């Protein structure tokens, strides 16, 4: 199981959303959902994506997309605009729901069962880390993680880096998924 937690600083927290971009950059949330959960012609059933929406008018909102039960989806932005609007209206789509949990509550709850890794350019090199069975990766949107949120998450985990290049949030998720896919494949090969 892998989990990604995106802190969306301005992501809108009511269903009045006609454009994901104009709703506090919810287009970044959409890109991260696609990077977290979609394969070519398939879904990652072992991934859960979380977005902590902190924009107006009703923060916090915790949007959850669970690959295990996700169905009836495509990758395009309009499909996800409609799904997010439904979730924010408390009409969940299969595998997608919204709760009032705060970022801090979510991190604390996850830390009881999983390792927390905060993605940050200045952290420990991804390639040097032995990930346990249920890693949880925390990252910021285009503005980055607020210092307070980063410090809170670091009470429960550590910083890891994908290198010195500043990547888009969705690219970070693709890199982590690819890295873990390759590691799992080589572990499976070792066992055989
Ligand atoms: C587009 S970046 C944010 C850039 C923003 N200007 C900042 O200063 O944080 C979005 C998120 O991706 C993650 N990120 C980007 N590049 C990374 C790297 N090389 N290593 C680890 N995390 C990275 C960080 O979590 C960052 O908050």
Under the CATH scheme, the architecture is 3-Layer(aba) Sandwich
- Sheet bearing the most strands, described? 7 strands, mixed
Strand order in space, largest sheet: 6-5-4-1-8-7-9
Ligand kinds: S-adenosylmethionine
Distance between the termini: 22 Å
Overall pLDDT: 95
**Percentage of residues in strands:** 25-35%
Written as H for each helix and E for each strand, in order along the chain, the element string is EHEEEEHEHEEHEH
Query: What is the total domain count?
Result: 1
CATH superfamily: SPOUT methyltransferase, trefoil knot domain
Report Rg.
Answer: 16 Å
At the third CATH level, what is the topology name? Alpha/beta knot
Number of helices: 5
Which CATH first-tier class would you pick? Alpha Beta
- Helix/strand structural class: alpha/beta
Question: Which geometry do the CA atoms define?
Answer: globular
Please tell me about this protein's structure.
The protein is an alpha/beta fold and 192 residues long. The chain has a single domain (2-191), classed as Alpha/beta knot (3-Layer(aba) Sandwich). Helices cover 33% and strands 25% of the residues. The protein contains five helices and nine strands; from the N terminus they run βαββββαβαββαβα. The chain has helices at residues 26-37, 77-88, 103-111, 147-154, 169-191; strands spanning 2-8, 38-39, 42-43, 47-53, 61-66, 96-99, 116-125, 136-140, 157-161. A seven-stranded mixed β-sheet has the order 6-5-4-1-8-7-9, sandwiched between helices. A two-stranded antiparallel sheet has the order 2-3. The protein is globular and about 45 Å long. The two termini are 22 Å apart. The mean pLDDT is 95. The protein binds S-adenosylmethionine.
